[in-house]
Amino acid sequence: MGEPSGADLARRALEVLDHNRRGEWTCPADGIYPNQWLWDSCFIAIGLARHDPQRAAGELRALFRGQWANGMLPHMIFAAGSHDAGSARIWRSRSFPEAPRDVETSCITQPPLPAVAAEHIANAMAEADRRPFLEEIVPEIVRYHEWLYRARDLGQRGLVTLIHPWECGLDTTPPWMTELGRMREPRWMRAVMRWHLAHVVRFLRRDTRYVPACERPSEDDGLRMLVLAHRARRYGFDLRRMPPADSVLVEDLAFNAILVAANRSLVRIAAGAGIPIGEHLQRCCARSAAALDELWDESKGEYFSRNATTGAPLGGSTVATFLPLWAASSTTARTARLVARLSEPGWWPRFPVPSVPTDAPEFDAERYWKGPTWVNTNWMIIEGLAHHGEQELADELRRRTLALVAASGFSEYFSPTTGHGDGAGEFSWTAALVLDLATRAPRSPE
Ligand code: 2M8
């Protein structure tokens, strides 16, 4: 595979982002994803920062329209007049006094990337614009990180607990789905499954109107995720009130690794702008960086999420194992072992890096987070590799990612074995991160 023309790819990426633009913010894809999503907008802002830092700043600002009075940043902000009314009904955010009045949002969060996006935007901005931007955005990000520690790290152990797989972003990742399979199911759901009526649900789904069912969550997984959201609603989506027996509570690897990387960005941008983040948050940041190590399994040479109630690791290899590369502040035997794992055949097929290794029993080449290669996880792995001075491998993955998109289009995800583009077409974070990767010179480590 040769190097695709960076300028041409960047131009096409911008066309996708313009097509999905909805005023101040950008939806992930026309049709299937009409609303604003938290980590999508962060990836979008990172890419846009390369091209138009002011537009990137607007994307991030639009995300904070949804911030709750308690600091929570919701994973979705519904577009006004959205046809996705079913989804808004799950949440009914306005019934919570802390939720914003002028927009409807979900009531759970998503990987905390705003600080990372803000750092990319600030670095790209003209000197005169940087300070006012940071003075506005840093306090909002601080409030969000404080909420994460206050509301989701009840034991002050340094690891944030998630209450729903939609919060981890890798929605149907096998470890979470196995955990959901153990959940006590309502009687009606057992009946649906026993009588194989799940196909009926297909007629009620919006997503399969846009994407073939074989590339989306299975009916069982989809149903369980809905049941869990309704159940969490009973407890006000409040971890303090959620009984472990009726909940699925996970110290999620991807989320916590991203949080550590984001904390580092937050500390840097706050210091650069002379904004104190407070001793308490500083202590939380230090604790998180150390606690991430608890998710490492020395015998398997991998990181795993953990059941927050029992402390048991959630088995099954996933791409999340590489995200601590981005989080780790120093290169250790452990990080070297992770880098070496990337060359194993299951992790390095023709179109790396798959969301589940191709030799794992759960691997499903075209189904959502159960196997396909995603550009956002590749981007974070590239950042992680560069961070540890693994420049050659970082450049190789960057080159392969760009070649994949050049050949298959700006799809949501790709088969790691055939390179076929799956899921939504013209997907915003694929476009934005390609814009970033195509524009940057192969990087030197931080
Ligand atoms: C997917 O998740 C949403 C629910 O939040 C969905 O399936 O409708 C995930 O890939 C998630 O990570 C992403 O943010 C979202 C929008 O792209 O889609």
Overall description:
This protein has 446 residues and is mainly alpha-helical. The chain contains 17 helices and eleven strands. A three-stranded antiparallel sheet has the order 5-6-9, covered by helices on one side. The chain has a two-stranded antiparallel sheet with strand order 1-2. It has a two-stranded antiparallel ribbon with strand order 3-4. Strand 7 (296-297) and strand 8 (302-303) form a beta hairpin. Helix 3 (53-63) runs antiparallel to helix 5 (114-124). The longest helix has 26 residues, at 127-152. Bound molecules: (2R)-3-hydroxy-2-(alpha-D-mannopyranosyloxy)propanoic acid. (2R)-3-hydroxy-2-(alpha-D-mannopyranosyloxy)propanoic acid is lined by residues 28, 33, 37, 39-40, 75, 166, 169, 171. (2R)-3-hydroxy-2-(alpha-D-mannopyranosyloxy)propanoic acid binds at residues 28, 33, 37, 39-40, 75, 166, 169, 171.
Mean pLDDT: 93
Form type: globular
What spatial order of strands do you see in the largest sheet?
A: 5-6-9
Summarize the main sheet: 3 strands, antiparallel
Our estimate of the beta-strand percent is under 5%
The total of beta strands comes to 11
**Low-confidence segments, ≥5 residues, pLDDT <50?**
none
Using only CA atoms, what is the Rg?
20 Å
User: Which ligands does the model contain, each kind named once?
Assistant: (2R)-3-hydroxy-2-(alpha-D-mannopyranosyloxy)propanoic acid
From the N-terminal CA to the C-terminal CA, the straight-line distance is 28 Å
Structural class: mainly alpha
SS field, number of helical segments: 17
Percent range for helical residues?
40-55%
Q: Can you write the helix and strand succession as a string? A: HEEEHHEHHHEHHHHEHHEEEHHHHEEH
